[in-house]
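REQUEST ID: PR-0412
SUBMITTED BY: lab tech R.K.
PRIORITY: routine
TASK: structure prediction, single protein chain
INPUT:
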Amino acid sequence: MELLLGSGLAEEALVLAAAREEALDLPSLRRLLASLPEALREHPASLLLTGRAARQQGHLDLAEIWLQRAAETEAYRAKAWFELGLVQLQVQGPEGARGAWEEAFRLSNKRSLVRGKAAHNLGGVYLSQGAWQEAQSYLSEAVGTFRLLGYSEGEAESLHLLALALHSQGRLRAAEARYREALRLLAERGRPTGLILSNLAEVYLLQGNLDKAKATILAGEEVGETRARGYLQLNRAWLHLLQGELEQGQALLEKAHSLEGSWELEQEYTLLSARFARYKGDREKAEQELRKLPPSLRRNLELALLGSVDPYALEAEARAQGALFELTASLLLQGRFSEALPLLEQEGFGSLGFDPDIAKKVLPLANKEARLRRLFPLKLYGMGTLRIVFAGKRYLLKDFPTRKAAALLVLLVLGEKPQPRAALAERLWPEADNPLGSLSTALYHIHRLVGARVIEGKGGFLSLAYPANTDLTRIEELEDFHELSLPVLPELQDILVDEAMILEAQRERRLRYLVEQETGRALQYMEDLVMKSPLDIGAREHLISLYEEVGQKRFAHLQKRRLEQLLGA
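STATUS: complete
OUTPUT:
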């Protein structure tokens, strides 16, 4: 453009600028318009760019006049309508902009950037209105157009919104795939990914996949994106709730609330605060929190779980909005399991099985219906304080009638396959006159405690009747230093001596490995820092201590001498 202007080809420069106006910042645009001869002031491209410049400077009335005139020329009609949509967005909001963007979309060439941008914006408008199908249609069009043009950044942004539309409908598997596509494109270009990671973590939480949720939250926190911080904190609090760590979750929830955020974040906090209260049994507080929120399907689901909204009404609302998660919950609350199960299996709404009010309705029938049992996994946390989470409730060691009853459950979870009844009885009650009788008593108390027959006997063997998993079988995969610093089964080490000893060895081995890896990464970072900032005394002192920690005494000595030189200077 500068070359054309310098060569006296002002009209050619103007046409080029109008073709690639998205690449021009406002100062460049103003320089171009100021350099145009009088004869080109009425050129359609000049009208378009003048209108764009006026919009960017906040002169919306003038912008509309110029852009309406530009829209009279076929070559610039689509771009002018797109710009008019941006003007109307500031004047009337998204609803006012929609008509202009629909016109831009209709008039644009299928291989043009303006078509992709109009489709993206229309998708965002419909998404904000809860019109998921319309949003999905426009955003799919935007993704395809940006991909065709090789505009990967636009493709990633549209994929993110498309994933949100699918996510809002409860189509979690499809949403996960789109989130991952968007993450890949943004990561390749070094763009922020925190918000997408937060959304993806919520998908895993809804699916009940807590390990993936935790890893995704950690990845999001490492990105350090300010806009995502509050949402990641709320997701971490929700994760603790589902893991039965109510106290830690409540503390994180309050910490998230103290962060500055939008009204959307405030609504998410209120919704989660109500859920915490409900899980704790404070139903009055839960309802008070929910009444602060404007009407929405998610709010109505929480009210239905409290018994304040008819599940039939929730079903009708969910069907009208095409929301599969809320629809599945309403069917479970109505006892229509044959209709709910296909949806559960299709999208994996595992978090419903963690809900105490869903469990209250469904669990009594799960003992008879094997397919329903898959909804209620038994989760055993054996590092630190023993904790068992089942059907939305947490059980600590003190809740069991005896420590040996808890040990029996631990052995069956760790065993992962049927175990001889007689061998279990002899091991846990060797001093009893009737070990098998003591075992039967323990089974009775366990089933009474959790409200379901979680252990079944067949042919002299005992096995778990419900799916189960534990952190004790994945010690070699843990990345969290805090988690690995906790002792293994400390309350049952005198009963489960061999298991505790072996698992403790695994824990220490994994912790040592991670410490070594962390030290290596820290060492590399500090070496790079000292190379870039040789006068940074604190960094050099830290580097010396790391050299000493890993036994590289000669390098530590050389760095000390260099430090003395710097201090002497």
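NOTES: The CA atoms of residues 39 and 97 lie 33 Å apart.
REVIEWED BY: pending
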